[in-house]
């Protein structure tokens, strides 16, 4: 499969016209080298994901993004939801279905380099329903959901899910509002954060209470 992609990139690139910058540039050609970035990126559902791919080389590299679905590679510029801006893959209004592995190829007439990016999607759920942020309920970071002026209808079980293309992890916490406005909370579980299939890093969820505000992390 990799050889087929290399052949496709070479056939596509060989007929492309040289830019004026290429004509003025030095004659010593260089193989593309992708700048190292974090390999795992997490984005809230509904937001825009940006997966970087920046490479040095001469002539200037061309960028091609593929999605790896069980070894089957799909060229991403054929999908309207996706765009490539200066090498960065932009995915608008991400959903759980967009989670998974993406591969960037940086190619010029000398050769190519590639890099993998793993996209994870975060989702907050209350009583098995997606939480839609508003003026009271806010996602203040990758790990925090903040509820302003906690009300009785806010009571329930809150769950945070993290998805990739082959598995998910989740943690949940229960919030109850008693009479006289007293908030009673129970830490139900810890979250198993799956970094890869063979290794798990464990992070404990905490509940933070302050007057009329509730934060979960």
Automatic annotation (TrEMBL):
GO terms for biological process: homophilic cell adhesion via plasma membrane adhesion molecules. The keyword Signal applies. Residues 1-20 form the signal peptide. GO terms for cellular component: plasma membrane. Keywords: Disulfide bond, Immunoglobulin domain, Signal. InterPro entries: Cell_Adh-Cytoskel_Orgn, Ig-like_dom, Ig-like_dom_sf, Ig-like_fold, Ig_I-set, Ig_sub, Ig_sub2. The keyword Oxidoreductase does not apply. Pfam families: I-set. Residues 32-120, 124-176 form the Ig-like domain. PANTHER family: CONTACTIN 5, IG-LIKE DOMAIN-CONTAINING PROTEIN. This is Down syndrome cell adhesion molecule-like protein Dscam2. It comes from Trichonephila inaurata madagascariensis.
């Amino acid at each position: 499969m990799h050889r087929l992609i290399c052949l496709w990139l070479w056939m596509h690139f060989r007929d492309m016209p040289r830019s004026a910058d290429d004509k003025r540039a030095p004659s010593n050609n260089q193989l593309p080298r992708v700048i190292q970035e974090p390999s795992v990126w997490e984005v809230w559902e509904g937001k825009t994901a940006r997966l970087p791919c920046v490479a040095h080389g001469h002539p200037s590299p061309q960028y091609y993004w593929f999605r790896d679905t069980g070894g089957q590679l799909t060229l991403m510029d054929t999908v309207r939801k996706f765009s490539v801006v200066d090498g960065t893959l932009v995915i608008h209004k991400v959903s759980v279905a967009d989670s998974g592995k993406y591969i960037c190829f940086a190619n010029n007439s000398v050769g190519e380099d590639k890099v993998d990016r793993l996209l994870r999607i975060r989702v907050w759920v209350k009583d098995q329903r997606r939480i839609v942020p508003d003026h009271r309920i806010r996602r203040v970071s990758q790990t925090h959901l903040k509820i302003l002026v906690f009300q009785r209808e806010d009571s329930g079980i809150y769950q945070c899910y993290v998805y990739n293309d082959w598995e998910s992890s989740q943690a949940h916490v229960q919030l109850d509002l008693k009479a006289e406005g007293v908030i009673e909370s129970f830490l139900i579980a810890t979250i198993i954060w799956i970094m890869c299939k063979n290794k798990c890093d464990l992070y404990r969820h905490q509940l933070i209470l302050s007057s009329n505000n509730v934060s979960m992390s």
